[in-house]
Amino acid sequence: MRESRRGPLKSAVPSNVVSPVRRCSRTACGRPAVATLTYVYADSTAVLGPLATYAEPHCYDLCAEHSERLTAPRGWEVVRLLDSSAPARPSGDDLEALANAVREAARPQERAAGAGGGSGGGARTADPMEVARRGHLRVLRSPEN
């Protein structure tokens, strides 16, 4: 008698059991999604980008592991869009630019010595050990000299 009086809402699964976190679309993977995969069939391209703000019917949410291991069908291109909230990793170009900046900072020392003492560079600096300056980088004289 009690069971016949219950409404359908009381016998349903409580809503607090369903997780609000979006899960990976891969079969048998229950990890949280971090990226969204979209196929552009006209261009034979798979676009993997940051997790979309809401679930789209023709997009696939992927966890970190599946998004890193993603491969496209033969003849297709994978385009990986950077997540702007993630810290950018330094590339080879960044390291080369840093090395070039250090080399450039060392060059004024050679020019100052060739110009007869570098009166322009010495007037700007207050530290007697400082030979030249370029931006925030300084060239210092060796303590033995």
Structure commentary:
- This protein is an alpha+beta fold.
- The protein has 5 helices and 6 strands; from the N terminus they run ααβββαβααββ.
- The chain has helices at 2-5, 8-11, 64-68, 92-114, 119-124, and strands spanning 35-40, 45-50, 59-62, 77-80, 130-134, 137-140.
- The radius of gyration is 30 Å and the shape is elongated.
Which terms would index this structure?
5 helices; four-stranded mixed sheet; alpha+beta; elongated; 145 residues
Overall spatial form: elongated
Which strand-content bin applies to the residues? 15-25%
**DSSP helical segment count:** 5
Q: How many angstroms separate the termini?
A: 101 Å
Count of extended strands: 6
- The H/E string reads HHEEEHEHHEE
Spatial order of the strands forming the largest sheet: 3-1-2-4
Helix content: 25-40%
Structural class: alpha+beta
Radius of gyration: 30 Å
Unreliably modeled segments? 9-15, 116-123
Report the sheet with the most strands, covering strand number, pairing sense and barrel closure: 4 strands, mixed
What is the average per-residue confidence, as pLDDT, rounded to a whole number? 74
